[in-house]
């Protein structure tokens, strides 16, 4: 669920402007999973544009507090959400931790890096939601350390049904600055894509794992 429509449209426009999101229905990208996709999203580019990263920081900080109440700790999912997560924590004056995909193989073998106390309220910051699996592994790691997860806030989601089911099953409320639906509407409006291309992009979102396969 988006925080609000105005933020969703503005965020989508900014991501398109800096090529953090690329739309190419005619020459699809191949994801690491092997899926063919007419969209590629790299929100790490946001950090290289001060005015845009400040906008994302401020929208996160404002909407996290409004939606979840002010938490005790902000957690970022490694590696894509570490940078923006730190900015959000700094804006809210809160401690920050980050969560590795898996525990370290050496030293203290931490999966959660940083300090928080059991029972503290934590909001998890993520850069991108596809199926939600990796994001929810971070939630599981935090819960195993005793965190009370208030919810997750992400920059962008593809809005896959499987992600909605995964978050529902994990009992995690997810809110995003923008999503696929608002992105496509904005992209047509601003002439990044045609209406025909929009139709192709909508078809992909219905069955992304099989789209583009002969």
From TrEMBL:
Binding of orotate, residues: 130
Known cofactor(s): Mg(2+)
Keyword Magnesium belongs to the record: yes
Keyword terms: Glycosyltransferase, Magnesium, Pyrimidine biosynthesis, Transferase
EC number: 2.4.2.10
Domain Phosphoribosyltransferase: 59-156
GO BP: any one term: pyrimidine nucleobase biosynthetic process
Reaction(s) this enzyme catalyzes, per UniProt: orotidine 5'-phosphate + diphosphate = orotate + 5-phospho-alpha-D-ribose 1-diphosphate
Pathway note: Pyrimidine metabolism; UMP biosynthesis via de novo pathway; UMP from orotate: step 1/2
Positions with a binding annotation for 5-phospho-alpha-D-ribose 1-diphosphate: 100, 104, 106, 126-134
GO MF, any single term: magnesium ion binding
Enzyme class: transferase
Domain of life: Bacteria
Gene3D superfamilies for the chain: 3.40.50.2020
Function field: Catalyzes the transfer of a ribosyl phosphate group from 5-phosphoribose 1-diphosphate to orotate, leading to the formation of orotidine monophosphate (OMP).
Record text on subunit structure and interactions: Homodimer.
HAMAP family: PyrE
Name by which UniProt lists this protein: Orotate phosphoribosyltransferase
